[in-house]
Each structure stands twice: as C-alpha cells, then as structure tokens.
Inverse folding.
C-alpha cells in the first residue's frame, strides 16, 4: 500500500521531501511513524512528523539542520535529536531502538535496534506502522503487527501482554484513542488492562507522569467521555486515592464541561485543569499536598486547586444574590485564581452569578486613556496617590460612568481638586 502526501499542506510536503532527499544522499533508511501514519491512513490531517532513522539519527539531524538552517539539539541518552526553526516549528529524529524496562513503570533504557524492534516497542498496533521515505518506495506502508487491520475494524490492541505493566500510562492512552477515534479496545487488551489495574500497575508511575496523561485527556475534544470511561475502568485511583468519584460526579462533568477546549475564554488552553479540579473535589488533604509537589502543575494551577479546596470563592453566595456593579465584582474577585473563576462560571446554574462573572471578565479589559503623567500635570505628585486615583478612575470606567478621554480628564480634575482641598484643610 502506498500513501500519497497530496492531502498535506505545502510546508509538511516540503519537509517530507527534504528528509527523503537527505536520507537518499546519506544512504540511511528513514521512516515516518506513529500518530502521523495512523492519521494519514484515517485521512485525518496531522503535521506532527515523527522520523525514525535506521542508523544514526543524531548525525542525520545535524546534517538536516546544516542544510536547512535549523538549530539542532541532541539527546544522546535517548538516541534522539530535534531540529527547530524560529518560525517553522521543529522535527524529531529518533534512532530505531529497542527499549528495556528494568522496572515496571520506570522510564526505559534504550539501545539501538532495527525498525521491526522499534515498532514492536510501541503502545498499540495502530501506532506501530511506518511509512518508508526512501526514494524508490516513498510512502510504502510497513505494517508488521496488523495495525491496518485494526484500523479498519476500529480496534485498539497492544502488541504484547507486558505492555501495560511496562508502561501503565498506556492504559490512559488506550482510553484516549478509543474515545477520540470512536474505536474499542480489543478483548484481550481490555483483559490485560483490567488485570494491570487489579495489580496496581498505575502505582508504579509518578504522580507527575500520571497528571501529564490527565492533561492530555483534559485537552481532548471528547474529554468528558474519556473521563467516564476512565472511571468505569478504575483508572482514577492513582489520582484520588481512597476518595471515590461517583457516577453522579461524572454525569455532572459530562453535563457541564462539554467541549471546553473550544471555549472562547483565554484559559481555554488550561481547560484540563478544570477537569482536574472536579476530579479532586473529595480528595484528602495529604493527597492535595502531594499534588502541590508536582512539577507539571504551574504556580497558578496549584493556586486554583488549593483555593478550590478552601472554597475561596465563598463570595459566590453574594454574587448569586443580585446583579452587582462590575467594579464591585472586580474588587471581590480580583485575588482569586482566574481558573477558579472560570470553574465557578461553568459549574453554576445561576444566571445572576454568570452575569456577574461576565462583568468581572469584561472589567479586566477596561483600560484608561490617561496615565500618571496626566495626573502629575494636574498637580497630583505622590506615587501612591496617583496609583490610587488611577484605580478609582478605572472603577468608574468599568461601571460605564465615564467613557471618553475627556470624561477621564474631567473627572480626574474634580477628584484632584477634592483631594488637594482636603489635604489643605
Ligand atoms: N508511544 C508509545 N508509548 C507511549 C507513548 C508513545 O509507544 N507511552 C509511541 C507511539 O507509537 C506513538 C508515538 O510514540 O504513536 C508518539 O507518541 P505521542 O506523540 O504521544 O502520540 P501520537 O501517536 O503522535 O498521538 P497523538 O495524536 O495523541 O499526539
């Protein structure tokens, strides 16, 4: 079977051609593998090229960078190199390799291998196919493990029985691909997964690695469906410990947080944290403290998780009662994590609260046309006073009481007159 690259954009096609030309010149075997191949066969567009080299990938990457003005970074321990360009993304070159798992759940040691071994070390058959890039057989599919057949049947299948034990993150990956592609796990794969869960395989990976997988799940279009499936397969114990995630909770997540990553809100890139906050609702303080040590979570994300636990948005009760002035909402909420405010918005059925939170977001966009220099020229000299007055003017603007620059100047003059009058008394 030959795959054509016509469906891809010109940048991707050009890159593929450049790799092919260099591989021919250097006489090394080069292949595209993994998600790109899977998606190409499913006619899903993807621009993430993953290149496997039957030989020294680092040397090939260096040569590629020289020819195409890229910057190369090598990772000798992983036999991998990345070529990157300021404006044109990056490209990974990996030496065909074998992986040796010394301990279940630990990161593997790698050693050079051939393409067949490289494909065998992968998670699922549908991700274990390659496209040849040598000139005579460009685009020829290499499928040693029945990946094409599984793609046709909509099956997610591991390559060997040790797969989930070697790398338990694959259990979450299996759910992700199942739901994303509308596939189903093969019967024996599902049996292996259940067995690995019973044996506590997920306990062998760090919380950081686990949360990295949650991040991927929470960033997917079908995140709510994936979360439901993960609960049914008991894949949340690693995260929540003894705290249960009820069916009703999952139902609520599915009702309230559909398609978050399409949301227009600026935190959309962090929508996975919203799911995380929900999943962590009932966890123990000890588990929360453990989470605070995770390096995958940013300071802001940790703050959102902690504030949620302490119910820092208790002001919600006030905000539900009546429509407030934007400036009042702003004062009440400005010290809260923006993720938490977004969570409150998504999880409430109260139209008044939603309305108040919308004014809060709009309030952040309010900018004055005048600045401290204008106030200095009007006679206000001290830094602290200037700052406080600008804040006061901004509040008035949030509430729509002033609009234009001349409104701002006029009000500033009045306020300064009062201020100076008061301090002269
Ligand atoms: N892989 C694996 N086991 C893992 C992670 C990755 O075998 N735990 C392999 C798979 O062959 C996968 C490839 O490495 O296709 C690249 O991984 P990744 O970029 O995470 O996945 P993609 O297949 O590119 O899929 P996605 O569309 O989710 O990015």
């Amino acid at each position: 079977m030959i795959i054509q690259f016509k469906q891809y954009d010109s940048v991707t096609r050009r890159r593929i051609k450049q790799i092919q030309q260099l591989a021919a010149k250097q006489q090394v075997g080069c292949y595209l593998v993994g998600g790109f191949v899977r998606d190409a066969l499913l006619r899903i567009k993807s621009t993430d090229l993953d290149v496997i080299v039957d030989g020294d990938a680092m040397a090939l990457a260096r040569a590629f960078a020289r020819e195409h003005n890229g910057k190369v970074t090598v990772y000798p321990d992983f036999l991998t190199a990345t070529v990157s360009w300021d404006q044109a993304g990056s490209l990974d070159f990996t030496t065909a390799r074998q992986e040796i798992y010394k301990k279940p759940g630990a990161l593997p040691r790698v050693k050079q291998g051939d393409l067949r071994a490289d494909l065998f070390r992968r998670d699922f058959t549908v991700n274990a196919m390659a496209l040849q890039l040598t000139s005579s057989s460009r685009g020829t599919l290499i499928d040693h493990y029945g990946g094409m057949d599984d793609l046709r049947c909509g099956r997610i299948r591991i390559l060997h029985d040790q797969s989930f034990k070697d790398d338990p993150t694959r259990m979450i990956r299996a759910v992700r691909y199942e739901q994303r592609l509308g596939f189903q796990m093969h019967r024996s794969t599902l049996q292996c997964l259940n067995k690995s869960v019973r044996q506590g395989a997920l306990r062998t990976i760090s919380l950081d690695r686990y949360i990295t997988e949650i991040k991927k799940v929470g960033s997917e279009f079908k995140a709510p469906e994936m979360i439901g499936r993960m609960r049914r397969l008991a894949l949340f114990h690693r995260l929540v410990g003894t705290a249960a995630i009820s069916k009703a909770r999952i139902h609520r997540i599915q009702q309230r947080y559909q398609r978050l990553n399409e949301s227009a809100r600026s935190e959309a890139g962090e929508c996975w944290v919203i799911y995380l906050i929900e999943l962590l609702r009932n966890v123990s303080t000890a588990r929360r403290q453990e989470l605070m040590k995770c390096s995958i979570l940013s300071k802001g994300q940790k703050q959102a998780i902690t504030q949620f636990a302490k119910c820092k948005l208790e002001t919600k009760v006030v905000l539900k009662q009546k429509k407030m002035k934007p400036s009042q909402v702003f004062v009440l909420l400005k010290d809260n994590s923006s993720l938490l405010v977004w969570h409150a918005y998504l999880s409430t059925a109260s139209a008044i609260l939603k309305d108040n939170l919308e004014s809060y977001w709009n309030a952040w966009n309010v900018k004055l046309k005048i600045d401290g220099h204008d106030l200095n020229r009007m006679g206000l000299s001290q830094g602290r006073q200037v700052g406080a007055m600008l804040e006061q003017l901004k509040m008035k603007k949030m509430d729509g009481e002033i609009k234009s620059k001349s409104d701002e100047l006029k009000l500033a003059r009045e306020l300064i007159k009062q201020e100076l009058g008061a301090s002269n008394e």
